Amino acid sequence: MPGGDWDPGSTALPVATAVVMIACSLYLTLKEYLTNREREKAAAPGDGRAAAPQTKPRREAPAHSRSETAADPRATLRLSMLTVAVLAIYVAGFRQLGFVLTTSALLFTLTYYYQLGDVRLRAVHVLLRHGGLGVLATMVVFYLGVTALRWSRYFGRIWEVEILRNRAFTAFLGVLLWAAVLLPVFLYVKRRYLDGVPREAEQAQERGPSEINERGVVYRTAAWRALMIAVPTTLLLYLVFQQLFRVALPLGVLA
Amino acid sequence: MIDVLSGVALITDPGTIIWIMFGVCFGIILGAIPGLTATMGIALMLPVAIQLTTATGMAMLLAVYSGAIIGASIPAILLGIPGNPNAIATVYDGYPLTQQGRGAEALIAATVGSFVGGIGSLLLLGLFAPLIARFTLRFGPAERAALALVGLTIIASVSERRVAKGLLMGAFGLSLAFLGPDRITQTMRLPFPSITTGTPLANGIQLVPALIGLFGISQALYDIDRVRSGRLTPPQVSLRGSIPKPRIFLKMWRLMVESLGIGTFIGAIPGAGASIAVFLSYQRAQRTAPANAASDAPELGSGALEGVVAPEVANNACKGGSLIPALSLGIPGDAATAVLLGALLIKGVVPGPQLFVEELPLVYAILFALLLANIFMVVFQVVGIRFFPKVLSIPIYILLPLILVFSLLGSYAVEGRAIMAASFNMGVALILGVVGYFLKKHDYPIAPIVLGLILGDMLEQNFRRAMRLARGDYTVFLRSPIALAFILLAIASIAYSVRRARRAKAAAGEDDEE
User: Fold this and answer.
1) What is the pLDDT of residues B118-169, one digit of tens each?
2) Which of A137, B24, B442, B483 has its CA 20 to 30 A from that of B244?
3) Among residues B336, B280, B476, B422, which one has the least CA distance to residue A8?
């Protein structure tokens, strides 16, 4: 026996752990069962106090918050389910589809729906249209940056300029380049689509993201905002992980 | 002396200083956002720390830890919402001060308190940790196994009134630690080895994706219901004419020393937690403040600076205190220290006596990094007194997607260039994140899982080694006085927790009847 005759073996502690888990689970199940039975007994007819519906006192809206929309458990559940589903797709498709495509799509989808505060089927067409635009924009700007970085390293080698081969410096260059491309576009988008949002849509947003404007102004505003977050974040994450930390991020279909 | 200089040299490198500054800033911003904790911040930054050298990575994580603690006081003071449970006591006087238009004064007081707590506990850490570590040189496998058992009984105390749930979660953490091959015999422990061999699961799960999943993703999922709430609007804060005079703080020296002692002592007790320390120090302040009468406020609770300083000193002192058992014994004092300990283990540094013998420069580097983090914390908090409160108005719908993506990419980055294993890590983080979310929803504590994950290996290796040396004699744990003392301590710890839980339940029952 490799561990020696006196070794309790590789299963000793896992088995002991399993015993503890089973014992605790049984105890908790039994406790829950007994508590429920006591509750049922207490709720028997004739006991008005116990039979009365249990309602928690409503929490007053905190003074600090400008607007606090009442939490809708069903909307939260839908958002949670969407989040888990989107994350699972992200993990499953990360290698095949690549970092740029999946990350920008994930960030866009989550930011978009979180702004709306609920998963609405009516909002899907805006998601697809703006999301597609966002992914495309990320890919174009990404290629532009990556090509520039390659050229910078190439010239660094040819001219023997050490700083052009430095990963931190090239990452910094990448930030500058992407900022130079994206900033004017974002300023235009902000002026054209966000600053120009009609007053009623703004008021609806102030009341809470769930106040959906029928004309889709809120959808579009949310989509533009999501786009402005998804594109630069994806590029920045690429620079940090791939350029600075040398993590092999898959390019997937872009390769 | 050479070790001290080597340690200082590890930290004074410009790159490390920049990472410390970044860590403090990130920590303050993260801590300022209600719901996001220091533990989550450290877990999120773990993948970044792994890419750096051990000293730089640890320095950055400690900076995040320090920043997140002071950051939590910002919403507590300005909005009356504690950034995390440890800042609850700061609300009592910090928020009334803001209502009186003295928010900046309260923030400065919190900064001074944090600095005193941080530096004071750092000195005590430097004093006591080597002494304890030297004592542990006497430990053999039996004593170490018993020590791990004591560490695991912390589960009972960190679980507050949920002892059974805590034990269940601790056992779950241990079972996660036991996944993969047995390290002594190299045999597969998973069922169906023919299927699992050749997959990343055959090597078990790594600590970083597990921590990121349990603390990062689960918390983000848990916070989804907050995306529907409106933005927070913090009041304007200006430093002009509102810096308290130094003599006000000098008058509080006794309160600060007492809070420092309370914080460091409670922090050093594994599992006790800073929330106990802040309330004890606040109570102490209630008794001593009328005699000191340092501020204009007549009594605590209505806007006295003592009510801000005392809990902040204790809260930050806990940080140094909790590092004492972590560095000297390898037993984490709380969830945040558990993650820090995990970072050390990933880097191949085993905390305990060997750390103080073989890696003494690293120990000094950690102490010096804490010192620098505390200094930067004061500088940034004062300089950014107008900027950091603005963080509170960042909408949660922007933060959550960023946290989720960063968590998944962080778990991926652990393996760096091995794409298959890296993708597996993302899956582990996501699954444990979802599991953690459901556990939180059903009131199961998460911290015991981490303790189980970290201490599982230490317990198993030393238990089996002790059994082999004692030729299968289980009484080896009773024959060693140190091991016996640890076992009795473990039993006493669980008994005390059960008793405390029963008392709390009885008290709650009485309240309901009333």
Assistant:
1) 999 888 888 887 777 777 777 888 888 888 888 787 666 656 567 888 889 9
2) B24
3) B476
Task: With beta carbons less than 8 A apart as the criterion, state whether A232 and A138 touch.
Answer: no
Instruction: Print the SS3 string covering B268-337.
Output: HCCCCCHHHHHHHHHHHHHHHHHHHCCCCCCCCCCCCCHHHHHHHHHHHHHHHHHHHHHHHHCCCCCHHH
Residue B228 has pLDDT above 80, yes or no: no
* One-letter identity of residue A224: W
Q: What is the DSSP letter of B245?
A: P
Residue A182: Cβ within 10 Å count: 18
Q: State CA B305 to chain mean position distance.
A: 26
Q: A residues 165-194 near B, CB within 8 Å? A: none
ipTM over 0.85: no
Start-end of H helices in A117-238: 124-158, 162-165, 167-189, 199-207, 217-238
**Chain A residues near residue B456 by CB distance under 8 angstroms:** 13
Can you tell me the distance from the alpha carbon of B98 to that of B72, in angstroms, rounded to the nearest whole number? 15
Neighbours of A17 (CB within 10 A): 23
**Distance, CA of B86 to chain centre:** 11
Q: Whose CA is closest to B109, among B117, B37, B121, B124?
A: B117
Question: Using CB atoms, which residue from B165, B175, B468 is nearest to A28?
Answer: B165
Q: Are B171 and B455 in contact (CB under 8 A)?
A: no
How far is it, in rounded angstroms, from Cα A127 to Cα A119? 11
Q: What is the pLDDT of residues A87-109, one digit of tens each?
A: 999 999 998 898 999 999 999 99
Identify the residue whose tokens are 């219901």. B225
Crossing angle (nearest 10°) for helices B253-268 and B274-292: 160
Token output for A50: 């116990």
Overall size of chain B counted in residues: 514
CA distance B489 to B498: 14
Contact A237 B471 (CB under 8 A): no
Q: Does A34 touch chain B (CB under 8 A)?
A: no
Are B171 and A17 a contacting pair at CB < 8 A? Answer: yes
User: Closest by alpha carbon to B65, among B45, B48, B35?
Assistant: B45
Chain A, nearest residue to B472 by Cα: A6
What pLDDT shows up at residue B371? 92
Sign of torsion, CA B468 B473 B479 B483? positive
B254 min Cα distance to partner chain A (Å): 34
Residue A71 Cα, gap to closest chain B Cα (Å):
7
Query: Among partner residues A10, A66, A209, which is closest to B189 by beta-carbon distance?
Result: A10
Average pLDDT of chain B is: 82
Quote the CA–CA distance of B281 and B255 in Å, as a whole number. 8
Span B420-472, pLDDT tens digits: 888 888 999 999 999 999 998 888 888 888 888 888 888 888 898 888 888 88
How would you class B122 by CB atoms within 10 Å of its CB: exposed for 0-12, middle for 13-18, buried for 19 or more? buried
Name which of B335, B314, B313, B319 is nearest B367 in CA terms.
Answer: B319
Q: How far apart (Å, rounded) are the C-alpha atoms in residues B363 and B47?
A: 21
Start-end of H helices in B178-250: 193-196, 207-211, 218-222, 246-250
Strand partners, B181: B188
Chain A: give the shortest CA distance to residue B41, in Å: 17
Structure pTM?
0.80
